[in-house]
Amino acid sequence: MPAAGTPRGRFAPSPTGPLHFGSLIAAVASYCDARANGGDWLVRIEDVDEPRTRDGAEREILDALVAYGFSWDGEVVRQSQRTAHYERALATLAARGLVYPCACTRREIESAPVGAGGERVYPGTCRNGVPSDRARRAARAWRVRVDDAVVEFVDRAQAVQRQSLARDVGDFVVKRADGLFAYQLAVVVDDALQDVSDVVRGCDLLPSTARQIFLQRALGLHEPRYLHVPIAVDARGDKLSKQTRAPALPRDPVPALLAAWRFLQQLDPAGEPGDVASFWRHALASWDAARLPPVPTLPAPSRYAA
Fold first, then answer.
1. Active-site residue numbers?
2. Is the pTM of this model over 0.85?
């Protein structure tokens, strides 16, 4: 457990492939924000979506972090081993009448309108009970009722954010029809259990933050501070990801670390660092979250894009 008032950040990759430049940006930002402020930094493997997990990916990720000079506090936590915690959270929501079973398929929801964040807004089909034409389906997801909730928070880089959940996403899934827990619930439970004080991650997750805050309040959990950094996009404007075939991080860490540092618009070192340790000495002494660009995306250097 951290000492009272000690900042605690985390890096939480999914083991679906090796780390790439987009992953490195989030790792560097979260690491610097925690360590430069005398805090802890955790690594959590977010393998809650088990069908997407790739054999060997976790080992690749951890080896890359070590090679790039990252060190973490405590043991690595894996979401696949924490189902009991998520079950308890779901039971708490159910006891408060905040969740209900849903028999809608993904295809049926594809005809729903699109909200401000680009997601389909669930129309509430099963909110008052599963309709008779879907009652024979055995599979049920669990959705949380958002009613008229409006969530407002201040992001440390992206300023004031405000979202009407009913208008932008609707009642959202916390447990999937295949029995796996949804990211939104798992991440909230894990951040609370690990005493995470500061969530630093990419802007692709900014639209889901209001849902997480809604769940934190519904479960009586503390709300971390949030800082969303720009995500790297390729020449087509697509986010660097495993799906867009972003190349794995190169074996030589220093140029990639410097590229991520400059992407985050931090103060350049006086000279090129000769090794990983030199880079981190400069980074941890110079980190300034106020310098982060308040934009959702920036182009990645071409050598790190597909």
1. 242
2. yes
Within 13 A of 22's CA, how many CA atoms are on the CB side? 29
Task: Tell me the domain boundaries of the chain.
Answer: 8-81+230-304, 83-229
- The long-range contacts involving 68-72, CB below 8 angstroms and separated by at least 24 positions, are 68/24, 68/27, 68/249, 68/253, 68/256, 68/257, 68/276, 69/253, 69/257, 69/276, 69/277, 69/279, 69/280, 70/11, 70/27, 70/31, 70/41, 71/41, 72/11, 72/41, 72/42, 72/43
Q: Which residue has the tokens 């991080």?
A: 249
Distances (CA, A) of 209 to 198, 238, 302: 13, 21, 30
- Give the fold, CATH level 3, of 83-229: Rossmann fold (3.40.50)
Q: How far apart are CA 160 and CA 59, in angstroms?
A: 38
The Cα 199–Cα 41 span in angstroms is 11
Which residues touch 259 (CB under 8 Å, ≥6 apart)? Answer: 21, 301, 304
Tokens 């900014």 belong to 206
| Residue the block writes with tokens 């020449």 | 235
Tell me the C-alpha to C-alpha distance, in Å, between residue 33 and each of 269, 276, 285.
Answer: 18, 18, 11
Residue 139 to residue 176: CA distance in whole angstroms: 9
**CA torsion angle for 155, 158, 160, 161 (degrees, to 10)?**
-90
Q: Please say whether the structural domain 8-81+230-304 has been given the CATH code 3.40.50.620.
A: yes
Enter the tokens of residue 189: 């439970």
- Cα 248 to Cα 251: distance, rounded to the nearest angstrom: 9
DSSP state of 59: H
Note the pLDDT tens digit of each residue in 142-188.
999 999 999 999 999 999 999 999 999 999 999 999 999 999 999 99
Tens of pLDDT, residues 212-248: 999 999 999 999 999 999 999 999 999 998 888 889 9
The rounded distance, in Å, linking the Cα atoms of 42 and 28 is 13
Backbone angles phi, psi at 174, to 5 degrees: -115, -20
